[in-house]
Amino acid sequence: MNSIREVLEADHRRLEGLLAKAMAPAGRIDEPSYREFRSGLLRHIGIEEKILFARARKRLGAPLPLAKQLRIEHGAIASLLVPPPDHALLRELEGLLSRHDALEEGDAGVYAECEALLADEKDSILEEIRTFPAPKMNRHYDGPNVYRTAREALAASARQRFR
Questions:
Q1: 3-class SS of residue 87
Q2: Which domain holds residue 22?
Q3: Please, are residues 137 and 41 in contact by the beta-carbon 8 Å criterion?
Q4: Which of 4, 127, 131, 153 allows an S-S link to 147, with CB 3.0 to 4.6 Å?
């Protein structure tokens, strides 16, 4: 894969596969698949926020047009990874990710926009993506202020981002 877009879109497919595998057992969660999905998804969000969107902002002198919406969605996605997983929660994540990924992928997506904007930095960006570390994973928490639906998570993330 020689483009930023190809690498990140391939990672979406990998994460979709892990999520499907995590949900495959009826009535339970495949824990190893879910752990890999959770870590991989947080790493992917980190790559977008800390490498791709940060470089685009530096180049433009302002955030990308979709940056606000994507950042809210990243916060919501991350918050849905906090509680212990069950099938209902993973279906919420699956739906949110499907809509979210559509904004990033394709010829009109934010990846293509960044790739065009940052064409002269492609090699260094690909190297940063390749070496970006997996995040330290916290234990699941299921108490006050834990969201289990995409709607709740999106609303909470929007409130936090724009206080």
A1: helix
A2: 4-161
A3: no
A4: 153
Output DSSP code: residue 140. P
Q: Tell me the pTM.
A: 0.94
* Residue-averaged pLDDT of the chain: 94
CA distances from 60 to 8, 64, 127 (A): 21, 8, 22
Supply the pLDDT for residue 27.
84
Q: Kindly state the greatest CA–CA separation across the chain.
A: 49
Alpha carbons within 13 angstroms on the beta-carbon side of residue 23 total: 15
Structure-token pair, residue 5: 């877009």
CB neighbour list of residue 112: distance below 8 Å, 6 or more residues apart: 5, 106
Confidence class for position 144, pLDDT limits 50, 70, 90: confident
3-state secondary structure of 162: coil
Nearest-angstrom CA–CA distance, 11 and 77? 16
Total of domains in the chain: 1
- 109 — alpha (psi -120 to 50), left (phi > 0) or beta? beta
Torsion of CA 38, 43, 47, 48, to 10 degrees: 10
Structure letter (DSSP) for residue 82:
S
